[in-house]
Amino acid sequence: MTAAWRTLAVAALAVFIVSLDTTVLFVAFPSIRATFRDVSSEGISWILNVYTIGYGALLVPTGRLADRFGRRRFFLAGLVVFALASLLCGVAPNVPFLVVARGLQSLGAALLMPASFALVLHAFPSERRGMAIGIWGAVGALAAAIGPAVGSAIVQFASWRWVFFLNLPLGIYAVSSGRRRIDESRASEQGGLPDAVGTALLIASFGALAYGIVGSREKPSTAAAAILLGLALLALFVLRSLRVSVPALDVRLFRRRTFAIANAMSLVFSIAFTAMFFGNVFFLTERWHRSIFEAGLWISPGPLTVIPVAIFAGRRADRIGYRPLFIVGGLLYAMGAAWMLHVANEDARFLLWLPSAIVMGTAIGMVLPSLSGASALELDAATFGVGSGVNQAIRQFGSVLGVAIVVVLLGRFGEAARFERVFVLLLVAGLLTALGGLTMRVTNVAHSHSL
């Protein structure tokens, strides 16, 4: 195995750990709540919210620092922090302890994820990056999608604490392999340290926006104030970034057309991906009356489709570019949503569910990994980490929006919940993804001028 493939194997394993942990916890959440019955719903919700806010807020600055101080160093440090935090989560005696440990977990994930993508980009020549990115993204998408089945099995046959303990052997192996197999890389031009004030503004703005979104149902007035504060802080961050010599994020990156379009599409598709995942679990359990374990199994064919499609799509991207993948993938995603609209009121049958799962799994395999690749097309070696951080932060923000939008669209949980509204959202998102693909330049990965 060449050095590039060894780097990809370790990087993909780390992405698998982080992505799996996120969606497994959704299924384990009711069991955690049952363990701490004396804690309010708002207090329990911070087990999820603190991770979402911390992870999303830290992605861009940690990506920028990884470019500056060494991507391998940040990648390994993130793995160690994530594994140790997982151990603390697993032994947590109370909710405040668990919330703090989850915050530490978010720091570990934010340290390793941008560095992971940057290491893969650096390891492969431009003509092979499409395939490598396809595999890297497919592993993350697969882990996120099989989370319900894995989480339901763990909760049913063991305990929610094993959701976190599962990260330990995987994390230890990834650290050991990374130390031996990954070479260090960093930006060739070191420059000064990223702007500390700008970094603080970025973290505070994302934190306020995410807090406002996740708290919109319970405290609408406080949430609205948080969102306004977040927007104001974000505006200040942009203004400052245009004036300082070494910004936390060079916002002029968004002047690069492909980078801007790819990140806009990432926001839309992340909303749709999370809304699909979150909405499907409730649809199968509430309207079609499947158990959590059955719902996880029914969802599985979709993610099993993702990896082979993503690998094939990555290879095609090296030759034909990402534009056709977005167009076809977006249309397939819309078709899958249209099928769910058609069968939503039918009696529960796996064969009715399967066509949508396969079609949408195919679409995800074409689109989701390609978004990472397209966002990197116009980046140079000095901005791999920060560019990846931007893309992943936007995805995380889209995930927060996806959950919040589903809750609003459903109106209330139960058999009568308005799941058709969610399927319409997915249909529209698929069409917007195809439209975004149409607006991109016709180019292929190997001949991208910036790589």
Name some characteristics of this structure.
globular; 2 domains; mainly alpha; Growth Hormone, Chain: A
Concise summary:
This protein is mainly α. The chain is built from 16 helices and no strands.
Q: Which homologous superfamily in CATH is the superfamily of the largest domain?
A: MFS general substrate transporter like domains
Multimeric organization: single chain
Question: How much of the sequence is in beta strands?
Answer: under 5%
Per the CATH scheme, the topology name of the largest domain is Growth Hormone, Chain: A
Domain Major facilitator superfamily (MFS) profile: 7-445
Protein name: MFS transporter
Membrane topology: Multi-pass membrane protein
InterPro entries: EmrB-like, MFS, MFS_dom, MFS_trans_sf, Sugar_transporter_CS
Give a verbal description of the structure.
This is MFS transporter. InterPro entries: EmrB-like, MFS, MFS_dom, MFS_trans_sf, Sugar_transporter_CS. Keywords: Cell membrane, Membrane, Transmembrane, Transmembrane helix, Transport. This protein is mostly helical and 451 residues long. The protein has 2 domains: 373 residues, Growth Hormone, Chain: A; 53 residues. It has 16 helices and no strands.
Helices and strands, with pairings:
Elements: H1 3-35, H2 41-69, H3 71-90, H4 95-123, H5 129-157, H6 161-165, H7 167-181, H8 196-214, H9 220-241, H10 257-287, H11 292-299, H12 301-320, H13 323-343, H14 350-376, H15 384-410, H16 419-439
